[in-house]
Write a structure and sequence with these properties.
It is a single-pass membrane protein. By secondary structure, the chain is mainly α. 57% of the residues lie in helices and 0% in strands.
Length: 89
């Protein structure tokens, strides 16, 4: 028997076709509560996949550390760019 079609609002982003993308985005919840809920689900998914495992490794912690390094570099880029053109004497 054929599976019933999945509603567009219940589809994952990777399952949405390019023509359906604007409609799918319009159905998302962009209220502060919806954004906080999405961040919470993302954190819970990351935690359960990489941190809360039976045999843990350095994968999850190293990703958090790499993200911190990238974000701190982005935040201080303007200062580093200014320092790059300064002559030392």
């Amino acid at each position: 028997m054929a599976q019933p079609p999945v509603l567009l609002k219940d589809m994952k982003l990777l399952d949405v076709k390019l023509g359906q993308l604007p409609t799918w985005l319009a159905m998302r919840d962009f209220t502060p509560g919806g954004i906080v809920g999405a961040l919470r689900r993302g954190y819970d998914r990351y935690y359960n996949k990489y941190i809360n495992v039976r045999k843990g490794g350095l994968g999850g912690i190293s990703m958090v550390l790499a993200g911190y390094v990238v974000i701190s570099y982005i935040w201080s880029y303007s200062h580093l760019k200014h320092e790059r053109h300064r002559k030392y004497h």
